[in-house]
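Task: complex structure prediction.
Instruction: return structure tokens for all chains below.
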Amino acid sequence: MRAIAVINQKGGVGKTTTTLNIGAGLAREKRRVLLVDMDPQAHLGHSLGVPVHELRRTVLDVLESKASVAETVVNIKPNLDLLPSSQSLAAADQSPAAKKTLLRDALASVQDYDFLLLDCPPNLGVLSVNAMVAAREIFIPLQAEFLALQSMSRLLQTLKEVCADLNPGVAITGIIATRFSKQKKLNREVLKNIQGYFPNLLFETRIRENVSLAEAPSFGQDIFDYRPRSNGAQDYRNLCREILKQGD
Amino acid sequence: MRAIAVINQKGGVGKTTTTLNIGAGLAREKRRVLLVDMDPQAHLGHSLGVPVHELRRTVLDVLESKASVAETVVNIKPNLDLLPSSQSLAAADQSPAAKKTLLRDALASVQDYDFLLLDCPPNLGVLSVNAMVAAREIFIPLQAEFLALQSMSRLLQTLKEVCADLNPGVAITGIIATRFSKQKKLNREVLKNIQGYFPNLLFETRIRENVSLAEAPSFGQDIFDYRPRSNGAQDYRNLCREILKQGD
Ligand SMILES: Nc1ncnc2c1ncn2[C@@H]1O[C@H](COP(=O)(O)OP(=O)(O)OP(=O)(O)O)[C@@H](O)[C@H]1O
Ligand SMILES: Nc1ncnc2c1ncn2[C@@H]1O[C@H](COP(=O)(O)OP(=O)(O)OP(=O)(O)O)[C@@H](O)[C@H]1O
Ligand SMILES: [Mg+2]
Ligand SMILES: [Mg+2]
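Output:
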């Protein structure tokens, strides 16, 4: 089982869009996928049309050992389950005393999946650290703009601290260029920088800017159900192929 | 003096870009402006070319009463000062015990400005609440996409709690449509929704998607210095005119 946290403290770079569409793409390739929403805004659930406010149990109950993963998951479609979040998770983000190993312990007994994908909030607080401790791999969605490089160094620093302290085995295994327009000089230049700094980590597939990706959540659908022939669907399909090749 | 917090817990909607360019636009109209960076990622400072890591004092020292505002501000250009942030501010975000009135008390004696503009991190934690308590007005930058409406209801709820508790005078006085493309049906439809819910709050000026706005921070410049004839400069200039008209 591959356990991957999708992290970048910079806001709006495509963490949720990437977690959702990689998950849906892998499920179409017959891999069993569990999406875990660690963002109190619960955008992963909203974007999949799950009535998050009405759920009796969420990931917080699992973290507090009040419910098991199996009792809490919501089935989205064949091979794709979601461990939903809720606003009440925000309280955990604000309590430094919260243990960094809660999620790792909660997921320890989970076996029936091929992939665990953890969506994170736009910060490096307790919830993101929990995801770093529970995962074995880190994917970093990155928008090739000025502030991208600045956030990377901060993220690497935090990851080093987490590694040393609680999860020596975790490693960055992929950087994903998101919202990419090759016509934008800024995108091309920043990407060249990223390739220079992290030569083997950048996936070949660039996720192009594509409005279908922003529209799909309004219908509670992933990109493959919403517009299977769009650039967004092609790019995430290609990305899934690369991810599966990594695992061989 | 107008004290305005620029808030939206949704990441990447243009909070920093808006705070920076409204600030620079108002300074060009000879208003004295203090920008306050309440985001530990310190993107406001980075985007203005301020060497944030090397500063001896930041907004955290002011919050902890270790330094005055006057000793800590960095002058950016005529009429434009910055109270810079730093990574160490993140600790405050994670301690629920931190008082919500720290910023209000720290700014209480500040008088030599016409505008205070507070940039916030992408969450509704302690730092954003401090900004809501210190401000008298709230501007909400909003990207007209699916998740925008969902975050609005959450923001309004938090604002109501803050009002009742610590700052009854604060009110939303502007919603700014950012990264807007009128060719995108999604943008047009969501904006129609926003207009329906908040008829008098949406500024006439829409900030169009414009790559110059994403490029300017790499040069440490505001949009007026970087590309004065770009769509981005025109839009923020028009927005500043509307803001000044409000104050009459
Ligand atoms: N490749 C793309 N092309 C066009 N729009 C995109 C693309 N990827 C994401 N978006 C849109 O950009 C916005 C931000 O994406 P998303 O919410 O996935 O980012 P995030 O990093 O999860 O944000 P947050 O930091 O708030 O959690 C959303 O409205 C989404 O629909
Ligand atoms: N109108 C626009 N046109 C094109 N790019 C824009 C526009 N506004 C902002 N951007 C770019 O979008 C990205 C996000 O903007 P910005 O950092 O200002 O958002 P934010 O809400 O402050 O993000 P965060 O939630 O991380 O604090 C930046 O790379 C910025 O340069
Ligand atoms: Mg997200
Ligand atoms: Mg910002």
